[in-house]
Amino acid sequence: MVSREGEHEGDLVRPYERVDDLQRSGLVIIQNPVRFRFSVDAVLLSEFVSAREGDRVIDLGTGTGVIPLLVWARRRPAKLVGVEIMEDMADMAWRSVRLNRLEQHISIVHDDLRNAPARFGLESFDVVTANPPYMKAGAGVLPGEHNVGKSEAKHELACTLDDVVRTASALLRSRGKLAMVHRPARLVDLVCAMRAAGLEPRRARFVQSRAKSSPVMVLVEAVKNVKPDLTILPTLNIYGDDGQYTEEMMRIYTE
After folding, report:
1. pLDDT digits (tens, 9 = 90+) for 186-217
2. Alpha-carbon distance 61 to 83, whole Å?
3. CATH number at residue 29
4. If 130 and its partner were Cys, which of 36, 60, 149, 177 is the partner (CB 3.0–4.6 Å)?
5. What DSSP element (H or E) covers 72?
6. How far apart are CA 159 and CA 137, in angstroms?
7. How many separate domains does the chain show?
8. Could you tell me if 142 and 190 are in contact, meaning their C-beta atoms sit under 8 angstroms apart?
């Protein structure tokens, strides 16, 4: 694969990495099989967010860069930025952008997300996305030292939920939107953090593995400087009774 003149896949992909098909607009992504890889929550968030053509969008804690890539494929915003604190992950995400020849549309920045307002300016974005660590520091079992990426992706080691939401609010213009995915068990924490930062939850959707099972994820979109008016969308089932993706999940992945 040639990403641009003079730059081939072999120049961008390390021997220990692989290239996966995102099944959308011909896009691919570089991933390290032994480190953190994106999962269905990132795919669902990219479909859920209300970004529009011409918007300025920033993804906080972008990891592999999958959310900027998928949001670009779906919405064609004017500008997309991914911020990632882990240098190796930021480098890999940027190489994915280059491999897809999207350097003119997507930027990847290696930095602490809490520095984003000073770096980009207050109220400088229309939309913020975030797929943050789900567990508080000290909760659950941390992966071994060889897998620091998974530790920071799953636990609030580099930043807290409040940090993410406060940063998002500072970056958003009035009536700008923050879209996040989290665990249902932390929904109260999420809503409280949003309201404390001047963001009002306006849309929420629970996600469950199968019908009649307990939700495993919740998608929430909040709007800055608006009155309360929350809409609960129909629950999304990932799998049908046959163990295969539901029709809606197939549409999310392929349409």
Report:
1. 999 999 999 999 999 999 999 999 999 999 99
2. 5
3. 3.40.50.150
4. 60
5. helix 66-75
6. 9
7. 1
8. no
